[in-house]
Every structure is written in structure tokens, then in C-alpha cells.
Design goal:
- The protein is mainly alpha-helical.
- It has one domain.
- Helix content is about 75%, strand content about 0%.
- It is globular, with a radius of gyration of 19 Å.
Length: about 260
């Protein structure tokens, strides 16, 4: 591996590891320090790498400055929602209007029809979620990390929160982080690094215990699907179908007589 390639991998890995420090260990100073070191090393590699890692770092800093919780109160949803908008909007805007390279894009209509396999994968995601999520959420008690809601307004807020967050996950971790890393690293390396960030963020959100065992592979597959389909619409559909099952499980776990279609 050439020296430049070594610096690209090390600096990119430090950015990814900073997410683990920020979101899992909840050590802001150490996390920001890792980001600073990563950008310093990137500067010794190339301007392009420094530029792209700085865009990722900007998104990570924006989201790390607010509490990452499942609180569905209006105040918290506005604060966290604003940070999420900045985390995606800043890299997109700077890439498009300052650097003018349009590296960060969110292709909705690609003009390509989904293949039969891609269509069949959608109901398969629901089956996978049905088999996995109740066992995970109920048996571990992790569902208690989400608010117990039984009133119409609370249910609507929970549904809105899970769906908006699912969409944001794809816009940031796949369409932004993965795409920017892919410009400098082989696809496999870029995918692993974005999956570390994806998993670390969801850990802080409340997906604890053995959730990384299925979130990490899910993140890897989502980036692979985006590489194949070039469609943010498709990966968002996949994520929202999985989150639909999550939403139903949360309602059932907090109100056991409701939506009693699960084994647990």
C-alpha cells in the first residue's frame, strides 16, 4: 500500500472511530480530538481527502452536540431534528455550492426499475424484522428505552420519530458518509467504516445489548444496496419497512394486549 493510501485509511478510520467514542463511550473531548487528528493526517494526504472528511466531521459534530435519545417531546424533537438537518444539509450544501462537485446526492428517481430480487427483498425485510425484533426488544427489555405511549398523539409522535430517523440514517450514513469515504477507499473499507458510525449512533439512541449484531450487517447491506441500485428511494423503503415492524413491536411491548401478533 502506498504511503498516501495508508494515510487515507488511517485518517478515515479515525473519523469512524470518533463516532464510537462520541456515541458509545460518550466522550466528547476525546471524540473531537480524534476528529482533529484525522483531519490533520488527511491534510498530509490530499486536499480532496481533507475536504471530504471535513464534511463528515461537520455532520458528526452537529449531531453529537445534542442529546441523542428517543424522547418524543416537541422540544427534543425540534432540537434533535435541527441537528439532523444540519448534519445532512451542511455536507450536501458545501459539496454542491462551494466545492461544486455534487459528491453528496440523494437520487430519488433513477429511471431504473427495481429488479425482481429487489422487489422480493422488501417483504423479506418485514419477515426478518418480525422474526428478529420482538425477540430482541422484549426479551432484553430494551423496549423500555423508548417512551411508553398509549394515546393517539403519543402514538403518532412515535411513528413520526421512528420514520424520520430511519430516513435520516440513510441520508447521512449511506448517502453522505459512505459516498464520501468511497471516493478515497475501496468499497469494502468505506462500507465497514460507515457501518461503525451507523451502529455507534443507534447504540446511543437506545439499541443496546446485542443490537450491533444485526445493526452492523444491516448497515453494510444498505450501502451495498445503494451501490447497486443508486437509489435512495429503495434503501429508504427497506429501512422504513424494518422500522414499521419496530414501531409495532414497541407499541405491543408497552401495551401487551395491543397488536398481539408477535410470539414474545
Amino acid at each position: 500500500m502506498r504511503h498516501g493510501n495508508t494515510l487515507e485509511l488511517i485518517s478515515s478510520a479515525l473519523v469512524s472511530f470518533s463516532g464510537f467514542v462520541l456515541f458509545v463511550l460518550e466522550q466528547d473531548i476525546a471524540g473531537f480530538g480524534l476528529l482533529a487528528v484525522a483531519l490533520l493526517l488527511a491534510g498530509f494526504s490530499s486536499w480532496g481527502l481533507l475536504r471530504d472528511l471535513a464534511l463528515i466531521a461537520a455532520g458528526l459534530v452537529a449531531i453529537s452536540l445534542v442529546p441523542i435519545t428517543t424522547d418524543i417531546s416537541t422540544g427534543h424533537m425540534l432540537v434533535m431534528g435541527s441537528a439532523m438537518i444540519l448534519a445532512v444539509g451542511v455536507p450536501y450544501s458545501v459539496s454542491r455550492f462551494v466545492f461544486k462537485d455534487r459528491a453528496v446526492r440523494f437520487p430519488v428517481r433513477t429511471g431504473q426499475a427495481w429488479t425482481r430480487a429487489e422487489k422480493w427483498y422488501l417483504p423479506a425485510v418485514v419477515v426478518i424484522g418480525y422474526a428478529l425484533l420482538p425477540a430482541y426488544m422484549v426479551n432484553t427489555g430494551v423496549y423500555r428505552n423508548w417512551p411508553a405511549v398509549s394515546d393517539p398523539e403519543g402514538i403518532i409522535r412515535l411513528f413520526l420519530g421512528t420514520n424520520v430517523l430511519g430516513i435520516w440514517d440513510e441520508l447521512f450514513f449511506v448517502c453522505t458518509v459512505f459516498v464520501l469515504l468511497r471516493r478515497h477507499l475501496p468499497a469494502a473499507q468505506a462500507n465497514v467504516l460507515q457501518a461503525v458510525l451507523f451502529t455507534s449512533f443507534l447504540w446511543e439512541l437506545g439499541f443496546h445489548v446485542w443490537a450491533p449484531l444485526f445493526i452492523f450487517p444491516f448497515a453494510l447491506v444498505q450501502a451495498l444496496l445503494f451501490t447497486r441500485t443508486k437509489s435512495v428511494s429503495y434503501i429508504v423503503c427497506v429501512h422504513l419497512l424494518f422500522d414499521l415492524v419496530l414501531f409495532l413491536v414497541l407499541i405491543h411491548a408497552h401495551n401487551r394486549a395491543w397488536i398481539n401478533i408477535f410470539i414474545y
